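Dig into what follows:

_____
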Amino acid sequence: MKKTTLPLAIVFMAQPILFMACKKDPVTPEPTVVKEWKIVISPKNQNPAPTGRMETGTANLSLLSNNSLKYVITVNGLAAGDALVAAHIHAGNVISNGSVVLGLDPMFTGATATGTISNVRSSFVDSLKSDDNELYFNLHSTQQPGGLLRGQLNENIVVAEDVVLLGTNEVVPVTTMATGIAILRLTDRKKLYSRVTVTTLDAGDALMAAHIHTGAAGVNGGVIVTLCANAEDFGVAKMFTLTDPVFTSVKMDAVYVNAHSSIKPGGLVRGQIR
């Protein structure tokens, strides 16, 4: 029987083809978690807080090595007739309302949503990596389109109070047309943010100062924090770094806000923090 011999050139050409056929495609590694946030969100953290809303919730975010952001949003006790419609990350500290820097565009199933945002721009990824940047998560609903629940990414709010200030709360009660509100946000970094506003002053009166005092309702106490040192400080957002004893007092004790005026230097309008 006559043997058939392949030319050597054909044999050598076939070897790379066989090698390529056996070679496996490279496996793309799964992205790793670069940073995570477990954000407690609350209506009380909104500026100002919506009246009568008692929902609680969490927003868990995970920044991945491929510049994607995973999210899991959960809300408990959503009010009847309301519906969640949007979620964003905004720029801003605990007492300011800032612009949207990233929209999550979640598809809500009732009061929950999960998803992933791909190809987050590199500049914002860098911002997310820094604990020093002031960013907050805001969740919007049909009844509260400006924001229902909110929480900071890089610090926890331990006290959030919108304190109504009235003359009738003074000791002794003051008869006045003036009313006010003190928006207070205390973080776990011992930073107190405040904005005190008083309106409808009586003719000839002028604002002088506002403080946090120690004392329960019906009791006058000493000053522990000066929120407004003069008239120009009213209506302006302020930030104070508290000492450990003052931080504990504002967080735990019976304390109140008192605004003082030229006609009522001992106290024009007052409201309890607790």
Observations:
- Confidence is low (pLDDT under 50) at residues 8-14.
